[in-house]
Amino acid sequence: MDVSFVKETTAPRRPLLYDDQRGLENLTREQLVTRLARASAAESIPMALSALTEYVGASLYLLVRYDLIQEQGLDFAVSSNWPFDMVRRIGQDLALAHVKSSEFERCLAFLQPRFALLPDEADLPEHLSRQYCSLTLNVGRTRLALLLLFPDDVVLSPERLRETGLLAGYCVSQSVSTRQRADREFELTERELECLYWIAEGKTSDEIAMILGISRNTINNYITSVMRKTATKTRSEAIAYAVRNNLV
């Protein structure tokens, strides 16, 4: 994703980049592996992201899901230690950029560090740069972005940034995959999952009935059961739940 959508009154000062050969270590790879192993054992995404943030030399992290950015509230934020108001404000800009970019542009942005400025009205801690780095990554069929805030005049490693994005995707996948499989097997039947998939594709009950070869009333019963099990009140809420939990 091209994050150059942020309005810039002056040309942004790009963080300095450095070659790993020259050092400037923040967290060694050995230390990172140890921290990530602990995070994996605890199935904790925040623990993993905190380790990766320190590894790359950043101060704050924000992991978001693009497919939920336009939902109300802050459900698009998977994990973050950014100030609450800043997360809410940046969500509007991320949604706008996501809508404007093509699928081809989004694919080109995969694991490529992109730099943009926070909105002028964002209340930023004094020691941090207003410029942030965005890394787009995929976990299964879910597209996410890791946004990192750095101290002023930090020296960055392009290789470490890409490595951080790759490891972030791996850690998220590892921490949720077991729980999601268990939830899917325990809570929803295969037929309920089929109905959930088709309503997520925008199909009506009549269309789903024709696709699956069963009656419309039966389809509605399955959908009602899905909403009861997922504690949702509408089909839209059920779809949002399914997307958040990688059920469709």
UniProtKB/TrEMBL annotation:
Name recorded for this polypeptide: DNA-binding CsgD family transcriptional regulator
NCBIfam families in the cross-refs: TransRegVisN (NF047402)
SUPFAM superfamilies: C-terminal effector domain of the bipartite response regulators
UniProt cross-references to CDD domains, sorted A to Z: LuxR_C_like
Assigned keywords, A-Z: DNA-binding, Transcription, Transcription regulation
Segments forming domain HTH luxR-type: 181-246
Domain of life (superkingdom): Bacteria
Key word Transcription regulation present: yes
InterPro entries per the UniProt record, alphabetical: Sig_transdc_resp-reg_C-effctor, Tscrpt_reg_LuxR_C, WH-like_DNA-bd_sf
MF (Gene Ontology): DNA binding
Residues annotated as transmembrane: none
